[in-house]
């Protein structure tokens, strides 16, 4: 595609990029993401307009000197580009150049943990639209990349817009699960309640009519009605435990001193670890670390993770728990809950935060799903990582 400095060429390129964005959003099956991408693609049109007017080659046409109004408009466009809500890169040969603030932040310390690996992914991109995954200080990030190869003033350029969507995708997933769990628990409870009630009523009627029923038949019916009632009550309890996933209260953020929180947690859980010959240690480095979250929800999330660690290390001769708080890169807070249990199998790692999924034989799949919702609701992320020395490591980032 060859671009000349004309409004038509700029419009064509803009339509192309907006169409790419719309298609990518529809592929993600989310109108919200499609809208977000369309809005975010607009600053790229501004950049192309600027690129088509600029360049190192001699101008194709003699233009009158720029007027102050035009200079002001161009300066405003440059400001919008610099602060656009998506990362813009120019790809040339083996080089990837960030073009605006969002792109520079993406590869700065505290975001992408391996900027060179991200650059290599961008340079390898073949399709005009593509989902990519890269490691960050907060975990694995998914992003939508859209690119276009252009010839501007005789030079070939590849422009790429990268829109990290992990937070949006995570929020959409959590909302979908909450709605599903709410509907399921509501419908199942509506069915179980009359079953339990009718089985008890049938048992009572059977007792009243026992004189007119053969003893052996009466005993079998009594056992059957009791079993129905017991299972209905058990299922109601099971389903009711999932209501916490769909009815979490809104967080009430406050400044939480982590040293005080860890002291309370250590007093609560350390005796249980010592009783079976293990140890639980809590460290805050430095001791003055604070975080603004809902104190109760953060404490509940950590208790759930510590409980999982306690169960996972049941077979260890010397069970060990470490809970560490430290500053992460980019001014973030990093909380780690580590144990020396067997860890999680590689093929199950992506599923452990899914409601109803559990690696334990009698697990209900609530604990880690609830942790993810509590952490996400407070503006954080949680991910699983393997300990180099064995065991599991859950990392919370705020």
Short description:
This protein is α+β, with helices and mostly antiparallel strands.
Can you characterise this structure?
- There is one protein chain.
- With 398 residues, the protein is α+β, with helices and mostly antiparallel strands.
- It has 3 domains: 2-57 and 67-164, 2-Layer Sandwich (Beta-Lactamase), CATH 3.30.450; 172-246; 254-397, Heat Shock Protein 90 (2-Layer Sandwich).
- It contains 11 helices and 13 strands.
- Strands 1, 2, 3, 4, 5 and 6 form a 6-stranded mixed sheet that branches. Strands 8-10-11-13-12 form a 5-stranded mixed sheet. It has a two-stranded antiparallel sheet with strand order 7-9.
- A hairpin with a 5-residue loop joins strand 12 and strand 13 (392-397).
- Helix 1 (7-27) packs antiparallel against helix 2.
- The longest helix is centred in the middle third of the chain and has 43 residues, at 166-208.
- It starts with a strand and ends with a strand.
């Amino acid at each position: 595609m060859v671009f000349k400095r004309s409004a038509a060429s700029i419009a064509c390129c803009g339509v192309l990029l907006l169409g790419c964005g719309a298609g990518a959003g529809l592929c993600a099956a989310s109108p919200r993401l499609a809208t977000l991408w369309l809005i975010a693609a607009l600053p790229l049109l501004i950049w192309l307009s600027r690129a088509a007017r600029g360049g190192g080659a001699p101008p194709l046409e003699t233009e009158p000197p720029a007027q102050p109004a035009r200079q002001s408009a161009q300066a405003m466009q440059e400001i919008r580009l610099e602060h656009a809500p998506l990362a813009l890169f120019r790809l040339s040969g083996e080089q990837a150049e960030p073009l605006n603030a969002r792109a520079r932040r993406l590869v700065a310390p505290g975001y992408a943990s391996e900027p060179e690996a991200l650059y290599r992914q961008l340079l390898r991109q073949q399709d005009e639209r593509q989902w990519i995954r890269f490691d960050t200080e907060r975990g694995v990030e998914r992003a939508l990349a859209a690119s276009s190869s252009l010839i501007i003033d005789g030079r070939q350029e590849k422009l790429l817009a990268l829109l990290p969507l992990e937070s949006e995708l995570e929020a959409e997933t959590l909302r979908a699960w909450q709605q599903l769990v709410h509907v399921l628990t509501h419908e199942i409870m509506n069915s179980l309640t009359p079953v339990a009630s009718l089985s008890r009523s049938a048992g009572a009627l059977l007792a009243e009519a026992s004189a007119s029923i053969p003893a052996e038949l009466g005993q079998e019916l009594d056992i059957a009605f009791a079993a129905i009632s017991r299972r209905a009550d058990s299922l109601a309890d099971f389903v009711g435990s999932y209501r916490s996933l769909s009815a979490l209260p809104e967080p009430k953020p406050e400044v939480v001193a982590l040293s005080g929180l860890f002291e309370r947690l250590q007093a609560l859980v350390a005796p249980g670890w010592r009783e079976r010959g293990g140890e639980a240690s809590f460290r805050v480095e430095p001791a003055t670390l604070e975080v603004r979250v809902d104190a109760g929800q953060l404490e509940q999330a950590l208790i759930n993770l510590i409980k999982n660690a306690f169960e996972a290390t049941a077979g260890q001769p010397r069970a060990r728990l470490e809970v560490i708080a430290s500053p992460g890169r980019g001014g973030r807070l990093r909380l780690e809950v580590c144990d020396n249990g067997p860890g999680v199998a590689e093929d199950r790692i992506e599923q452990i935060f899914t409601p109803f999924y559990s690696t334990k034989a009698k697990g209900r799949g609530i604990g880690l799903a609830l942790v993810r919702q509590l952490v996400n609701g407070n503006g954080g992320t949680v991910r699983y990582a393997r300990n180099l020395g064995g065991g599991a490591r859950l990392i919370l980032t705020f």
